[in-house]
Amino acid sequence: MNPHTDPSDGELLQSMLAGEEEALAALYRRRQGGIYRFALQMCGSKTLAEDVTQEAFMVLIRDGQTFDPERGSVNGFLMGVTRNLLLRRLQRERFYVPMEDDSDDEAKGPKSFPACDGPPGPLDELSRSEAITSVRIAVLTLPERYREVVVLCDLQDMSYVEAAEVLSCAVGTIRSRLHRARALLIEKLRPARQEEEAASTTAKSARCFA
Amino acid sequence: MNCQNFESIVNELARQELVEANVREQALAHTADCEACGLRLADERGLTQKLRAVANEMNGLEAPARIEDELLGAFRKHKLAQPGRSANYAWRYWATAAAAVLLIVIGIAALSMRSIHSPVAAENPKTPTFQPKIAASTNKTVEPGVDQPKPAQLTVEGVALGSHLKRHPKSLSDRPNSADKRNESEAQKADRDSTVPANYGGEVATDFMPVGYTSPMNLQDGGQVMRVELPRSTLAGFGLPVNMERVNERVKADVLVGPDGQARAIRFVQ
Question: Half-sphere exposure of B224 toward its Cβ, with a 13 Å CA cutoff?
Fold first, then answer.
């Protein structure tokens, strides 16, 4: 381990397997955010996301020696473990929690994003929060195979290659699934845009009448 | 560029992924000509904006601190439960494999040694097993009742039966197998020399006779001999003469029980 630079994930993993607790702590602090957000974006439940995050690192502690650096990165390995754990839990429990603390918003349907021309006021913030919630709900209602590519590529900002490594499939599969998933999302969010267009038309009419 | 080609790269255009410059220009030019593709690109760009807003909103989310504490606690327990597992993992793997091979070799050697020293059956001092001598013909009958004091004098159809009556240990269960073999060899010696009486003052017994349809080959498997008492009428079932005056009395017999628990052969003892 080079003391002058940050150790890589692989080096931290090797140190952890050799019994260094600090290595596990460093690896956890570096990667837990992405793992937790991936789980949360996939299931929508903070409780389940916390459980899965903890279990993913427990798998790393127990079976970390099975990690093969030639097959991918430690982060990809962790993401893959998280994804498998999540799918197992979702399949077993038929788990779907709409959105914690936002149960009323689901009934209202998707919201459009407010314009960001000026400094946002309280209403803009509220509207923006609602719009974000509506997008999150739309993502959560996607089938799992489409949801995971949207989460990885659009929300986690992974490349196609990295997503393919996590999902253990071909890059072309990622590309086609993402294409289909985004089309589904656009369909789910379309009513919001139509409302926006209707409002815009009303405003233009008002100006014309003025 | 046509609409189909545009559709294949619309995601990359909207997500601002790397696309060849000339392809990008052609696609943008196509949106100027095709209103549907222009709307399609606008939809995709709008979606990208919304998804990035969601990603930014959730960017600061992290797992609670308690998870780290629980993980570190679990790591300490794991380390205590398996000290030096990772360092000695390969060594332990090969040590286990070597031990397994060694056990297999020892097992094979023990089996071969056992088969050399005990070719017929496993020795058991408390429950002796031996190979019975089978009666060559059921025509050779004998009455082991007390009313025939000298078995050597018994004859059936002119055949001297003395050779078929052998000295038999009084208590088979108390005798080791080697003793049986010695007695058997003595009996074989007596067979060779018909002038030597088979009765040495102990019990006299008939040869073993197969029970039921047991093949003589099965009798070579050995087994366990059990002393039983049977109704005298049993003698008739094996072609032996029965003294009708003592028909209500019982006769002693040794039953050879095979390894499967089935009676294989019987001999009558006086």
Answer: 14
Per-residue pLDDT of chain A in tens (210 residues, 90 and over written 9): 445 578 888 889 988 888 888 999 999 999 999 999 999 999 888 899 999 999 999 999 988 888 888 888 899 999 999 999 998 888 877 655 545 444 444 444 444 454 444 566 666 777 778 888 889 999 999 999 999 999 999 999 899 999 999 998 999 999 999 999 999 999 988 865 565 555 554 444 443 333
Q: Break chain A into its structural domains and give their ranges.
A: 1-97, 104-210
Can you tell me the ipTM of this complex?
0.74
Q: d(Cα B244, Cα B227) in Å, to the nearest integer? A: 24
Q: Which residues on B lie below 8 Å from A193 (Cβ)?
A: 43, 46
Pick the CATH number of A104-210 from 1.10.150.320, 1.10.10.10, 3.40.50.720, 2.70.150.10: 1.10.10.10
Which residues in chain A are contacts of B58 at CB distance < 8 A? Answer: 37, 40-41, 155
* Residue B212 near chain A (CB below 8 Å): no
Task: For residue B206, give the 3-state DSSP assignment.
Answer: coil
In angstroms, the Cα distances linking A84 to A69, A73, A162, B63, B230 are 19, 17, 16, 19, 73
How far apart are the two ends of chain B, measured CA to CA in Å? Answer: 114
Nearest in space to B259 (alpha carbons), one of B228, B213, B216, B222: B222
Task: Verify whether the Cβ–Cβ distance A33 to B75 is below 8 Å.
Answer: no
Pick the closest to residue B133 from B160, B163, B154 (CA basis): B163
B205: enclosing H helix or E strand? strand B203-205
Distance CA A14, CA A26 (A): 12
| Cβ atoms of A43 and A86 closer than 8 Å | yes
**Predicted structure pTM score:** 0.53
**Cβ contact B257:B226 at 8 Å:** yes
Which CATH fold would you assign to the domain A1-97? Rna Polymerase Sigma Factor; Chain: A (1.10.1740)
Which of A36, A128, A135 shows the shortest C-beta gap to B61?
Answer: A36
Residue among B53, B57, B62 minimizing CB distance to A36: B62
